[in-house]
Specification:
This protein has 181 residues and is mostly beta strands. It is built from 1 helix and 11 strands. The longest helix has 4 residues.
Amino acid sequence: MDTSDIGPTNRGRGRRGAATPVQPETPGVVVLGPRDALIGTLSVEGDVRIEGTLEGEVSATGEVSVQSTGTARAQIAARDIVINGTVDGSAVAEHLVSVGETAVINGEVRSARLRIDEGASVNATISMSASATRHTPRTHDEETIDVTGTAAEHDGESDAYAEVGAESAPSNDEGSSGTEG
């Protein structure tokens, strides 16, 4: 049989024509879709986006994002955590926990930095410490505030915020002046 007219081919036959899988230079993203549910432990090198339901534990080297359609009844540990859905459990971030206006959190939040948008519902123990970052060890103590509530509702006031009660928090009487709405 004469095969000289066939020539080289890259059809994936044998080792010579087999495609070499491309290794990503950056870690990937694991997506739990809106109709997906996971019960158990998920550990990821990279980011996790939760659009469905997760029960258990999730840890990631990057960002864990709970979308507005997502529910996590879990212990979440990551570099950064962005919450726009529901979290019942703990959210522990090395750098930042960001809570969007559609978020509902029940449990515990620990991070070096915290951002809470107006409209979010937070019923959690919050611990913030600059020592949460790996590279810069700090020596000062952790500050803990127990927060329960939602954003305050005032007609036409875009800068209205919920009251935060904490036994150890310093009092601030600046907001006493002005007109009532």
